[in-house]
């Protein structure tokens, strides 16, 4: 707008100067003044339009600037979210790694504990069948002479006595089979005393008298099977065939 005013002042001065120099040519100067006035009017309109264009450009530039700032803000926000997601992922992965490490350690400790416990319990186990004397006397040790296995060498097939090679908790089982309709009374004897007993009386056919006992032994303690009441064994005494009807004596170390 200032530029338009300056141009208008310049043209007005030129028109006034021309009018002073030649009064007789006034119509011609009037025509020139009219032309200059029209030109000035056009220039003013152009200046106004330029101002309008400049204003619109400034507005559009402001809008573009705001849009760019908004986009920058969104990008920063997304970058922050990505950083948070990445941090959460890294933290979760670290937590899972730590948990896996702790779990592996606990499992390994459990395995070592089991190995240690298994390793400290010796394999003490025996099983013997077939009695040596089918008609034993009262109080006589029953000798099982057919040894199926004897880990730890605790059982003596000559004497029928088991001697504990180590101290610990043992399980002993025994069964005796009488001849048809016979009776059987026996005991599991620990260090000379009855610990458990089995009995069979007044039956029909072949039947077992059985007994079991869980005892705590010291190294050198002895366990055997003794007969009770020999006069109750009838019809030929014990049945000693090596088959499903066989007599047997077993023992196993449960824990030291």
Description:
The protein is an alpha+beta fold. The protein has 2 domains: 2-116; 125-255, Jelly Rolls, CATH 2.60.120.40. It is 45% helix and 27% strand. It contains 2 helices and 10 strands. The chain has helices spanning 2-21, 26-120, and strands at residues 125-131, 144-151, 155-156, 161-163, 168-177, 184-190, 193-200, 208-217, 222-227, 248-255. The strands form 2 sheets. It has a 5-stranded antiparallel beta sheet, with no helix packed on it. Strands 3-4-9-6-7 form a 5-stranded antiparallel beta sheet, with no helix packed on it. Strand 3 (155-156) and strand 4 (161-163) form a beta hairpin. Helix 1 (2-21) packs antiparallel against helix 2 (26-120). The longest helix is centred in the first third of the chain and has 95 residues, at 26-120.
């Amino acid at each position: 707008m200032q530029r338009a005013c300056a141009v208008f002042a310049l043209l007005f001065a030129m028109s006034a100067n021309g009018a002073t120099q030649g009064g007789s040519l006034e119509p011609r100067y009037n025509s020139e003044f009219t032309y200059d006035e029209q030109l000035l009017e056009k220039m003013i309109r152009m200046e106004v339009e330029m101002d309008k264009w400049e204003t619109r450009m400034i507005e559009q530039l402001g809008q573009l600037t705001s849009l760019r700032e908004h986009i920058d803000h969104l990008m920063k926000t997304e970058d922050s979210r990505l950083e948070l997601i990445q941090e959460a992922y890294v933290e979760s992965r670290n937590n899972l790694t730590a948990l896996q490490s702790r779990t592996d350690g606990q499992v390994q400790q459990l395995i070592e504990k089991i190995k240690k416990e298994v390793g400290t319990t010796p394999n003490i186990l025996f099983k013997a069948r077939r009695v040596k004397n089918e008609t034993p006397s009262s109080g006589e040790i029953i000798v099982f002479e057919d040894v199926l296995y004897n880990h730890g060498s605790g059982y003596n097939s000559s004497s029928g006595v088991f001697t504990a090679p180590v101290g610990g908790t043992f399980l002993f089982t025994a069964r005796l089979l009488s001849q048809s309709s016979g009776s059987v009374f026996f005991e599991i004897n620990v260090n000379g005393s009855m610990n458990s007993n089995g009995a069979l009386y007044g039956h029909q056919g072949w039947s077992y008298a059985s007994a079991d006992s869980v005892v705590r032994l010291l190294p050198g303690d002895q366990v055997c099977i003794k007969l009770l009441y020999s006069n109750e064994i009838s019809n030929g005494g014990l049945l000693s065939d090596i088959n499903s009807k066989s007599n047997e004596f077993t023992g196993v170390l449960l824990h030291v």
